[in-house]
Amino acid sequence: MPTKVIAVANQKGGVGKTTTAVNLSACLAADGQRVLLFDLDPQANATSGVGLEKIDGASAYHVLLGEGSLLEKIKPTAYERLEAIPSEVDLCAADLELARLENHLQRVALALQSVRDSGRFDVVLLDCPPSLGILSLNAFAACDGILIPLQCEYYALEGISMMNRILDQLRAAGANPRLDIFGVVMTMFDGRTKLSNEVVEEVRKLLGAKVFETLIPRTTRLAEAPSHGQPIIYYDKYSTGSAAYQLLAQEVLERLNSINK
Asked: 3-state DSSP call for residue 107?
């Protein structure tokens, strides 16, 4: 099976984007997939979320500028079948530097080619910055689909129309003709509130089968896990958050398998 690259993205911060990238990566790896978590967010929360340190020079920054191979940046984690490309603050400069380069929207795609060719991974998850800057656009140009975490609140759908416009533009420009939304996952769900249930219903009406069945709950344990450098299935295996991400991983695998048929 060829390596599948999924960008986890939402231009709005605080919606569970990195939580989803980290925990989905860990659950897919626990299910037997060989997973690479590529942290493209200069805040480097996905890096610390899998227990890696933010170290000067460890990010993909120089590779994106054309120096070296992305394979050299891959680090093992404490979890079987899960490896990562860390981020650190130098990626902040990438938005400025990449804009000056030829093929400035293809730098991540070009860097990832060695990873695809290596056959080492079944799935690569890109944790994008909470913006639609040049790093996110590079991730979109490089991926096979975008997974969008949407918080269960009334402004949840505001960004979807903007995201669709960006995808249309990238397809039209030839940056990634196959680009599409891989799926939408509802996060921070509180089944006790009318608001959460109404938002989920509204999103399902508008986006239909794009929306995963699994709802990610708002829980204290999910919020605590990153400070311990552990995905939720290792921090609290029997929590509701752990169960939700394990179910989401199953749905993601089913969609990936249907793409390959």
From this structure: helix
Pairing state between β 145-151 and 75-76: unpaired
As a whole number, the mean pLDDT across the chain is 94
pTM above 0.85, yes or no: yes
Q: Any idea what DSSP says for residue 3?
A: P
| pLDDT in the model for residue 96 | 82
- Which ranges constitute the DSSP H helices of the chain? 17-30, 45-49, 61-64, 94-99, 107-118, 134-142, 158-172, 194-207, 220-224, 232-235, 240-260
Q: Structural domain tally of the chain?
A: 1
The 10s digit of each residue's pLDDT in 192-209 is 999 899 999 999 999 999
Phi/psi of residue 74, nearest 5 degrees: -75, 130
Q: SS3 for 83?
A: strand
Classify 24 in phi/psi space as left (phi over 0), alpha (psi -120 to 50) or beta: alpha
Residue range of the domain that includes 135: 4-260
**75-109: pLDDT as tens digits:** 999 999 999 999 998 888 887 889 888 889 999 99
Q: What are phi and psi of 73, to 5 degrees?
A: -90, -5
Give the CATH number of the domain where residue 256 resides: 3.40.50.300
Residue in 21, 34, 35 with CA at minimum distance from that of residue 148? 21
Nearest to 222 by CA among 183, 190, 198, 181: 190
